[in-house]
Amino acid sequence: MKGLFFLGDRQVVLASVDDPTPAHGEVVVEIKASGMCGSDLHPYRAPHDSEIPLERRFIGGHEPCGVVVEVGPGVPKHVAKPGDRVMVHHYHGCTTCAHCRTGWPQLCRPATRTTYSANAHGAHAPYMKVPASTLVCLHESLSFEAGAAIACGTGTAWGALERLKPGGNETIAVFGQGPVGLSATMLATARGARVIAIDLDDDRLALAKSFGAAQTINANDVDVCEALRDLTSGHGIEMVVETSGSSQAAQAGIDSTAVWGKVCMVGIGSKVSIETRALLDRQVTVMTSYTMSTVQQYQCAEFIVSRNLDLDRLFTDRWRLDQAEQAYRVLDAQSSGKGVFLF
């Protein structure tokens, strides 16, 4: 089969690799949809290292969704069998520590942690071999595209909301309206919140409106902190989800919170300066959220089904794997919705 590799310097290549064969406790998933994630841009944009041969690189893609086609020894039928529609939780750990046993393998010790597409082959290929413990059932009513989104981007938004624990009547500012931010806007609205969406792109803000945002702010046009205070009668924001990875957005989120406000950082790469006294005066809670647990991935999917949310609208670009160069140029521009490779 052929898989997609990131080479850095905005280069990708399709290269032949052996078809996977499952060992004990493993399965092979025939990939039907492999989502494109904003975090793909880190290896995509990274400097090319000519000293790393292709044999030491890994197939990209960490939003896998498909059908089980082969089951290795030691996998009970109630865990996985050929024909099962599944998402893949894209981490695997030691399986015995407290984090792994509660569905958080991404918190396992780095020496024993696998992150698919980073240190093991990912989903940008027709087939993917994974431990059966990484599988999360995909509801019959959900498309494979939706399952791919839940496997990282949408699931990450759900994980952030679970960290914030909204009661259903808060005002939540969502910074960044890429796929994770749009998912947070949709999910928070469905959970009863009033959402204010912030971005730099009017097209993404229009999408946010269609996903339920009560108000939108283009950070190019106004002072975001002042705009948020105006929209909350001067009180500030009760909850913030920062998905953009922008230092300016993260700082504005912290500065805009109300007394007892909560800020959840999701975007990768930002740096903020915190004045302790200012946070003490408002009793602000600042936290992070790292994707979601296996349990939360399932809960997110069930919530989407129970509320009949049209997650497929998140996708603006559907690609074949042989269109990868164009696909990642579009993602690199960061002005569209979500992209996915279909097989």
Automatic annotation (TrEMBL):
Which Pfam family, just one, is annotated for this protein?
ADH_N
The reply on keyword Transport is no
| Keyword vocabulary terms for this entry | Metal-binding, Oxidoreductase, Zinc
> Which family would the database say this protein is a member of?
Belongs to the zinc-containing alcohol dehydrogenase family.
Domain of life, per lineage: Bacteria
Lineage of source species: Bacteria, Pseudomonadati, Pseudomonadota, Betaproteobacteria, Burkholderiales
Q: Which InterPro entries match?
A: ADH-like_C, ADH-like_N, ADH_Zn_CS, ER, GroES-like_sf, NAD(P)-bd_dom_sf, Zn_alcohol_dh
Q: Where is the Enoyl reductase (ER) domain?
A: 8-341
Q: Which cofactor does it need?
A: Zn(2+)
Protein name, per record: Threonine dehydrogenase-like Zn-dependent dehydrogenase
Query: Annotated Gene Ontology MF terms?
Result: oxidoreductase activity, acting on the CH-OH group of donors, NAD or NADP as acceptor; zinc ion binding
